[in-house]
Design goal:
The complex is a heterodimer of chains A (272) and B (334).
Chain A lengths: L14 H6 L3 E14 L2 E14 L3 E6 L5 H9 L6 E6 L3 E4 L11 H11 L4 H14 L15 H13 L5 E5 L7 H18 L2 E6 L2 H7 L2 E5 L6 E6 L11 H24 L3
Parallel strand pairs in A: 3-7, 3-8, 5-6, 6-7
Antiparallel strand pairs in A: 1-2, 1-4, 8-9
Chain B lengths: L22 H7 L5 H7 L1 H8 L3 H14 L9 H28 L11 H12 L2 H34 L1 H16 L6 H8 L3 H25 L3 H9 L4 H39 L6 H10 L3 H33 L5
The chains are: A alpha/beta (272), B mainly alpha (334).
């Protein structure tokens, strides 16, 4: 595929994708995003070509300014690409660094809302909410409001809410970035389990390389300003992995030094 | 899946990676290298221990959750009520004392400015008569009608202005201007438009209250955290459902602050309207005029106290309670 692109609108219909490859959940073709403010323009993403196969777990790693969040926003349909094409096969759910739960709703009502918006019947909603609470191990906390829950619990409610959209593709924007290390380790395990149980396709953005190696089937390395795909690592270690394990550690070193090279390039550009 | 490690092999690749190496090579090399070195370090055993079962993780998670759920016991109801009540009672006592002090100073003769010992029994007597309650009833009916209309109008204008850039630059500052304008100024025009009728008084109440409500809505929508709107959009809230499920609930605290302020404006406008109204129907304003005409100062002061009490009661019992409930639910402190 060449980088010549037409500024095509986002194709949410599955037909296109299914023509080319059966198992593609998300495909980005020559996707660029330029932000303009007055005379300045910032190239956030530069001709990104990425394919996310169904049921895969991809971690996107990069230093700040690499357009990770922009990429997720575009895939989620919150933002439009400047040029290039996007094909998404199925429903998309998005999780933020902060839980973004609605503070006026209880945990249950938060999980129920996306189903309400899709006009799922009340009886069905109630059953599904209980199933999802069980899945994230929060039975008994359904009537709590977000401020009564810890950061880790809030993120699990947010995960359940994203799954309540029947999300085939789950976009996660540094979802565990604000949590303490112990909670994060447990939630890595939980996310892995839930991913295996639901068969969702996960695109997980993080700046924590170890976290990426702990979780991903594949790690995509983005450069900063403009955001380009500079490298990609497949991870074949058996699951469940541990973040402290030596193989995770050693691959992390490899990824980190590759990332370091990329970041150092920017230092060289700085005028003295 | 090209490679599935057994637990005792999965630690084998420690020394495979160097900085420039990519995983594709690594995946192939893993099996042959490093096994002995790892054994010497005892990493194999560690790796075996490291495999946590789902159950272990689940109980660890339950422990973490429980640690976060410390609840502070609430005190007894009577104690809490007393704690919030005594400062108010003390304040009332202080005001009465200051009033009595003025009387003791003989600044004005008693028939011009009577003291609490005359006025309070008079007030008690007034509250025992049916005429008083008829007057309060008809005034409150006007207040409720006018306020309800102000809510509908203020809400519609507020949402429209918050969402339309053109409308905002056109009427945004006009709303604040209206808010600062004493609404009694509208009364003569209202009389021309509606004659000497209920309509004229309610018009003044609406025009007094609606700008504050609209401003509350605009403020509330302007200050919704963008994260919540984005979350709403991802969850599929667009158009009217977005207002119902995301935007209006998110703007509710500010809307309520607007209502509270609007009530103060509405109550003032209503009293002003009734006082200069010249409408024969019995009402608080009419009674105040009546007591002045009769030179009945104890009666006049009793009615002033009634006006004060109603204003405070609506503010604290209706809006105060609603505000506290919402703040508590959202964990916004007290």
């Amino acid at each position: 595929m060449t980088a010549t692109v037409s500024a095509a609108p986002r194709t949410t219909t599955a037909d296109r994708v299914e023509d080319s490859a059966v198992d593609v959940a998300v495909e980005l073709r020559g996707l660029s995003k330029v932000y303009r403010s007055g005379r300045n323009q910032i190239q956030a993403l530069d001709r990104i070509d990425l394919v996310f196969t169904r049921h895969s777990f991809t971690c996107v790693v990069g230093a700040s300014g690499c357009g990770k969040s922009t990429m997720l926003s575009i895939i989620a349909g919150l933002d439009q690409p400047t040029t290039g094409e996007l094909a998404v096969n199925g429903n998309v759910g998005l999780m933020f660094q902060e839980s973004a739960l609605f503070p006026w709703l209880t945990a249950e009502q938060n999980i129920e809302l996306p189903m309400k918006l899709r006009r799922v019947l009340k009886a069905e909603r109630t059953v599904r909410v209980q199933q999802l609470l069980q899945l994230v191990r929060l039975e008994g906390f359904g009537s709590k409001r977000p401020h009564e829950l810890s950061g880790g619990m809030r993120q699990r409610v947010a995960l359940a809410r994203a799954l309540a959209q029947d999300a085939d593709v789950l976009l996660m924007d540094e979802p565990f970035g604000a949590l303490d290390a112990m909670t994060r380790d447990v939630l890595h395990h939980e996310l892995e389990r839930i991913w295996q149980q639901t068969g969702a396709t996960i695109i997980f953005v993080t700046h924590n390389v170890r976290e990426a190696v702990r979780l991903g089937d594949r790690i995509v390395l983005l450069s900063s300003r403009p955001g380009r795909v500079v490298d990609s690592f497949d991870v074949h270690f058996a699951r469940p992995r541990r973040i402290e394990s030596p193989e995770v550690g050693s691959l992390s070193i490899a990824v980190t030094s590759r990332l370091g090279q990329e970041v150092a390039r920017h230092g060289a550009d700085v005028p003295t | 899946m090209a490679l599935t490690f057994r637990p005792d092999e999965s630690a084998d690749n420690t020394d495979v990676v160097d900085g420039a190496m990519s995983d594709r090579a690594m995946a192939a090399d893993v099996d042959e290298t490093g096994a002995e070195a790892v054994d010497e370090l005892g990493l194999v055993e560690r790796e075996l221990e490291a495999k946590q079962s789902d159950d272990e993780v689940a109980s660890e998670l339950a422990g973490l959750d429980a640690l976060d759920q410390l609840e502070l016991a609430k005190g007894a109801l009577a104690l809490r009520v007393w704690k919030s009540l005594w400062p108010k009672l003390a304040a009332i006592a202080l005001v009465l004392l200051a009033w009595q002090a003025v009387i003791w100073s003989h600044w004005k003769p008693d028939y011009v400015l009577p003291g609490p010992r005359v006025v309070l029994p008079q007030l008690w007597h007034e509250l025992g008569t049916g005429r008083t309650w008829t007057a309060i009833g008809s005034t409150m009916r006007r207040a409720v009608t006018g306020f309800a209309m102000a809510i509908v109008i203020g809400l519609l204008i507020g949402v429209a202005v918050a969402k339309s850039k053109v409308l905002r630059s056109a009427v945004g500052s006009l709303i604040t201007g209206l808010q600062t304008m004493p609404s009694v100024v509208w009364y003569p025009l209202a009389v021309v438009l509606f004659k000497l009728s209920e309509g004229a008084i309610i018009f003044v109440v609406v025009i007094g209250a609606a700008p504050s409500i609209a401003n509350g809505v605009i403020n509330g929508i302007d200050h919704i955290p963008p994260l919540l709107t984005r979350a709403g959009r991802v969850l599929g809230a667009r158009g009217l459902p977005a207002y119902r499920h995301v935007i209006l609930p998110a703007a509710l605290p500010s809307f309520l602050a607007g209502l509270k302020q609007a009530w103060a404006f509405a109550w003032r406008s209503l009293m002003a309207g009734e006082l200069i109204g010249g409408i024969a129907a019995i009402s608080i304003g009419a009674r105040l005029n009546n007591e002045r005409d009769l030179n009945d100062t104890p009666g006049l002061l009793s009615w002033m106290i009634i006006v004060l009490i109603i204003g405070i009661a609506v503010d604290s019992l209706v809006f105060g309670v609603a505000e506290r409930t919402i703040r508590r639910r959202r964990g916004l402190g007290i």
